[in-house]
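## Example pair
The file below holds two records. Each record gives the amino-acid sequence first, followed by its structure token line.
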Amino acid sequence: MFLNSSDHKNLAQIYTQVAKVNPKIGYTTVYRTLKLLTRLGLADQRKFAGGETQYEPTSGRSHHDHLICLGCGKIIEFEDKALEALQNGIAQRHRFRIFHHRMELYGQCGECRSKKVSKRKG
């Protein structure tokens, strides 16, 4: 269920999904399982812009970065080989070995920008 999903979910959302399959499961059990999956490298724990902790599965997924909308909270995942090459080049110039990295870009998505423009017109 969670490991087959491709989006970011908070603990409450994951619990709701699991409880549909097993109504007797406890909230704490889901929380502990997510912590274990994170420790095992099967899930990533993210906290975007000081918001609620979210989880995403890692298995079978390539490295990606995030665009986070400060208006609606939408998270857009993206991959960019040129950007990765640039980061690796910078690390090499500084004789630095990268083990992992995380890029989060915060702004406003197209939908929120459109809503803001339409409010000004109306």
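Second record, same layout:
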Amino acid sequence: MSGTTRSSADLPPRRKRLIFQSWHRGTREMDLLMGRFTDEHIDLLTDAELTEFEALLNVPDTELYRWITEQDDVPANHQSAILDKVISFHKSRVL
């Protein structure tokens, strides 16, 4: 069970793959954080943002989780507009 509520039938393979990877991170917390973001934004991301997002998906869950939840500062080499979007998306859903 992936958790996604979005159909990927109308998407190109690259975007389908990113939905799958976002929902299959390894920890349920990261599946929810990345999967929900991807479901909502996959249609809107530019090619450059997709490339940044692919790089972000290669970051280990423990590090990425701490950045998204603002427990740790994002290292300069990982700062990106797409990570800012993911953080904003998460913050908008937290009470």
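Notes on the second record: The chain has one domain: 13-93. The radius of gyration is 12 Å.
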